[in-house]
Specification:
Elements: E1 4-13, E2 25-33, E3 37-41, H1 48-56, E4 63-68, E5 71-75, E6 78-79, E7 87-90, H2 102-107, H3 114-126, H4 142-154, E8 160-164, H5 172-188, E9 192-197, H6 200-206, E10 209-214, E11 217-222, H7 224-229, H8 234-240, E12 244-247, E13 249-251, E14 254-257, E15 260-261, E16 275-278, E17 283-287, E18 293-300, E19 304-311, E20 314-321, E21 331-336, E22 341-345, E23 349-352
Parallel strand pairs: 3-9, 3-10, 7-8, 8-9
Antiparallel strand pairs: 1-2, 1-4, 4-5, 5-6, 10-11, 12-16, 13-14, 14-15, 16-22, 17-21, 18-19, 18-21, 19-20, 22-23
């Protein structure tokens, strides 16, 4: 039976004590299994770092409970000190001690017993930084510094690691390499991890499950494949999956969007708040002096262009071949492609364009 490494129950938090509270975290509930890598994903200001601080023990929650290995470590009247939690933390800026070399940084805070020294050496080899033992932080690259920070977090035999956007300051190649190695390193150490990120591709690529947050609330907690096939709402579809969203209208006894009709029976009853979610490859763009849409941006992606167009408060992304070229500011029309799939939310009705 897989143990539960971390459990968060009915967690609420804010930074004010007056009656007109603005909750930073609202009724947070999720758990992390032993050996699991969970992503904590959301836009800036959604409460990710605040939640991380509560788990680490830097702050006490206003309401709710945090448990580790079944034991309460935080609640409104109790706070287990950070150093007693057996939780490691890796920061965005590495937070290495500048006056200590790599070996001294990794061994900081652990006892000098042989088992811990052996573990520290093993971690240096595992993370491919053994040859840099005597170097100081200013002599390391960003990738090397992040490996040292991860080794330091795991050195005490930590069973849970909190990673606060650890790859955000690294170049693309180093970022991809470290990201791909993270899961195997954690598995070798029998450790679980909570990875904070605002990059949907990162979260979906390497995490076992993903927590999606918005304005202090969890929008969805599921595996990446479940999230892709069954997003809980239009925010998840737009922010995480980078899908287009348009409102659905019932006109002339049929359902449609402003770019095309939907294959939904007129007998089907859907919400007046319903939206249609679809991929950027499900629509086409065509120059038209009297078009309803205006080209807001164009990005070159080797084999295609990504156009962003706007009209009456709607914004759409279109991926199309290099033979279609429009300038920023051009008027255009957008059309749906017959047969391309779409999803109606919140009704969760799978449909297609006609």
């Amino acid at each position: 039976m897989v143990n539960t490494e971390l459990e968060i129950c009915n967690l609420w938090h804010d930074f004010k004590t007056n009656k007109d509270r603005t909750w930073v975290l609202k009724d947070i509930n999720f758990s992390i299994k032993g050996g699991e890598l969970v992503g904590l994903l959301g836009p800036s200001g959604c409460g990710k770092t605040t939640l991380l601080r509560l788990i680490a023990g830097f702050d006490k929650p206003i309401r709710g409970v945090i448990k580790k290995d079944g034991q309460i470590i935080s609640q409104n009247n109790y706070l287990l000190s950070p150093e007693r939690r057996n939780i490691g933390m890796v920061f965005q800026d590495y937070a290495l001690f500048p006056h200590l070399n790599v070996w001294e940084n990794v061994c900081f805070g652990i006892t000098k017993k042989k088992e811990y020294i052996d573990r520290a050496n093993w971690l240096l080899s595992l993370l491919d930084i053994f040859e840099f033992k005597s170097r100081y932080p200013h002599e390391l690259s960003g990738g090397q510094s992040q490996r040292v920070a991860l080794a330091r977090a795991l050195a005490p035999g930590t069973s849970l690691v909190l990673l606060d956007e650890p790859f955000c300051s690294l170049d693309v190649e180093v970022r991809a390499k470290l990201r791909s190695e993270l899961s195997s390193v954690l598995r070798s150490c029998s450790a679980s991890a909570l990875l904070v990120t605002h990059d949907p591709h990162e979260a979906l690529a390497i995490c076992d499950r993903v927590v999606v947050m918005r304005k202090g609330e969890i929008q969805q907690y599921s595996t990446p494949s479940e999230m892709v096939s069954n997003p809980s709402n239009d925010f998840v579809g737009k922010f995480v999956l980078q899908r287009n969203i348009l409102p659905v209208h019932f006109i002339n006894n049929s359902y449609s969007t402003c770019i095309g009709e939907l294959d939904i029976s007129s007998d089907e009853k859907i919400s007046t708040r319903s939206v249609c979610m679809f991929d950027k490859r499900s629509i086409t763009i065509e120059f038209n002096l009297n078009g309803l849409f205006t080209v807001a941006s164009r990005e070159y992606r080797i084999n295609c262009y990504i156009y962003t167009v706007v009209s009456k408060g709607h914004k759409l992304s279109i991926e199309i071949g290099l033979d279609t070229f429009l300038n920023i500011g051009d008027k255009c029309n957008i059309s749906s492609m017959t047969g391309k799939e779409c999803l109606i939310l919140p009704d969760k009705i799978k449909s297609s364009f006609q």
